[in-house]
Amino acid sequence: KKSNKWPSPPRLPLIGNLHQLGKHPHRSMYHLSQRYGDLMLLHFGTVPILIASSADAARDVLKTHDRVFASRPHSKIYHKLLYGSRNMASAPYGEYWRQMKSVSVLHLLSNKMVRSFRDVRQEELSLLMEKIRESGSSPMNLSKLMSTLTNDVICRVALGRKYGAGTDFKEMIDRLMRQLGTFTVGSFVPSLAWIDWICGLDAQLDKTANDFDELLEKIVQDHEDGDGDKADFADVLLAVQRENSAGFEINRLSIKAILLDAFVGGTDTSSTLLEWEMTELLRNPEYMKRLQEEVHTVCKGRTSVSEDDIQDMSYLRAVIKETLRLHPPVPLMVPHESTEDDILRGHHVPAGTQVMINLWAVGREVATWGPDANEFKPERHLDSPADFRGQDFELIPFGAGRRMCPGISFAVVLNEVVLANLMHGFDWGSTEDHETEVAESIGAVIRRMSPLYVTASPTT
Ligand code: HEM
């Protein structure tokens, strides 16, 4: 057994390596990994965290040692906001998580369910296209339109109706996402946890949790009182509970927690992907042209693109893969934690060790992607069998292994049909300076720092 001597940058007392993380930890960690290797140890305050920054390291953690690293670290924020971590995304590895995942995979996010929401996608997409047409040639905030679209689709699919801009629900979702991305002193330096309390964080989290619970309780109650024939997520979960068809009991808190998962996991991630795709296509007009040609060829003589047309669009899929490679919406994934002592690459890893996979670094590995790894080039995927479904570790924007994203099919089908229709319906322009790099936001989901403003003219 070797001692725990992972390559590791020198650290300061109390704060560890936090001062080296800066505003964009995925970028700072990428630079540190160039010096300390693809599996290095950092200290966030007093908490040791392994950082995996290559396809090999990701495979070691998510495949070879998947079972041991399949848990999630305890987080006070997640615990308070997400029903004591009864949601799937932050539940510790174990029987409860297994049950929630199987309900989600089999009853909510199966291919059959994803297909059943085709009309919802189509209707919301038509509304989006209408809004874009209405804006005429004046610049519009495309980021906001994307965010509204994904929020509306998930609201309808999960709750059966929309809770759009100006409603309490939308304000609460925005607040929830902000708070989930908050950095708390207490998580990394437990002896200073009182600072969070003094700053009022605990009270703010309690308020958000209560607001959500009141609203979700009412929504679930309305579903119970209704005829239940709409088959949105709330209907399905109540039916599974009533009929005991999952083979285990699902209580009210679990139902509300799983409903929240769809919003936390699915809204910002999906709109962010669309935002980066359009950003890269506007910065690379030759690729936008090639994509438009493909879409127009496949859909010749038609007024819009249907989901059936997508299978013939290999360039569209290449653009999506390339965007996910360079701009994984959740660049540091969701942290994993080991449940037992383990030996990884010859080093002893004690139970309870956290691991982060830096997808942003994995997507920029020169050994895999070549010397032009930093360039946006969809062509690189045309002859490559690598896909993002969790088998090819050089491209894992949805994770891999047991904790892999269960919403992948849901997300991909929406993304493909929206992007294809944007290309089919309009010619796009922007006044952005394409020479400078686009600034990134902070938080767990990395979108553009400033919204994407564009002009659109209908294609003839
Ligand atoms: C472009 C869109 C999306 C991206 C890039 C994405 C990415 C991810 C990633 C990286 C993880 C962590 C995987 C891991 O820890 O190993 C994850 C987990 C998860 N995602 Fe997604 N996701 C997307 C859309 C969705 C959608 C639409 C839903 C649901 C409607 C969803 C629900 C979840 C849930 C519940 C988890 C937690 C799974 C678990 O802990 O077992 N995601 N996602």
Automatic annotation (TrEMBL):
Record bears the keyword Disulfide bond: no
Sequence positions that bind heme: 405
A GO MF label: heme binding
Gene3D superfamilies for this protein: Cytochrome P450
InterPro entries assigned: Cyt_P450, Cyt_P450_CS, Cyt_P450_E_grp-I, Cyt_P450_sf
Cofactor requirement: heme
Keywords, in A-Z order: Heme, Iron, Metal-binding, Monooxygenase, Oxidoreductase, Signal
Family: Belongs to the cytochrome P450 family.
PANTHER family: CYTOCHROME P450 71A2-LIKE, CYTOCHROME P450 FAMILY 71 PROTEIN
Protein name per its UniProtKB record: Cytochrome P450
Protein's organism: Microthlaspi erraticum
